[in-house]
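ugh ok fine here u go
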Amino acid sequence: MPATRTTLRRSLAAAAALPLLIGALASCGYGSEAKKDDGKKANVAAGGKKLSADTVKIGYFPNLTHATALVGLQEGLIAKELGGTKVAPQAFNAGPSEIEALNGGSIDIGFIGPSPSINGYTKAKGQNLQIVSGSASGGVKLVVNPDKIKTLDDVKGKKIATPQLGNTQDVAFLNWISEKGWKVDAQSGKGDVSVVRTDNKVTPDAYKSGAIDGAWVPEPTASKLVSEGAKVLLDESTLWPDKKFVITNIIVKQSFLKEHPDVVEAVLRGTVKTNEWINANPDKAKASANAALKEETGKELPAKVIDLAWPSIQITNDPLAATLNTQAQHSVASGLLKEPDLKGIYDLTLLNKVLKAAGQPEVTDAGLGVK
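structure:
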């Protein structure tokens, strides 16, 4: 059974950007949120032998783009590989807050997008994290109010939400704006388009209230907006070669990788087996992910939401390393990052060991592996 979790609320952030929502939504929280294991229960394989760590703390988002984490924890596939080592899960709204948790030791391993991975790696001069696997591609869309926005050019002058300043979708949207020739101050979000950083939990209500005109967001938030009458204006996958781009990596705190490689390898065996199960059983996996989301949010996704969202996400062990390098250049172009040195951001040694043992093809780090 999955671990029991309690909610840690963070203070309201950027309230001025959503004045219509403050009174109605202050009690719901705004910004980054984490859910922690309360210590009373934990994912432990019955009769399993403990590895070198008593517990491994795993961070992820309650997004379908984190299906590997949702399903792997829900079905016990990760816990099974860990034996007597406990799994302590924590849920976050967006990447920057998860990087903070990794740096602070609140988590050891995290499912996270490329932009926070890049930022976390470069700001610490390559000392705090490493990407050890891929997890998912795709699952990100620009959805808009069709009464206000009918074409891509109509986005100019409108209020569009992203999950958090500097998160993967925020960077992708800022880059798209730049390629349109429009100007936006990356930090404030002000300019030819108003970029409104909004917790994914709040975005559907912001849309319904008219506080935003659309959003560049991951699933299931995009399809939740569609269920409220929004239309998909752009699927981000269409902007990438072969329609593939990394949306979720698996990262590990470098000190944890050094001290507990057996635990990291066990987690990766669990994720590889989870991904294989997801791809072989898409309907069962979709139901499992929905059950996990219900546990996180208190309610499952309606069929019309998850049925629309699920097919747009590709589950993969491949970190699609070349696309991470491209996304780094997007951050540079957006003014959120100086030219980075990403050499060493990947350590795929354990993943390729697991893949080889499973009879699956090994993956490449695109020249960005450990120095």
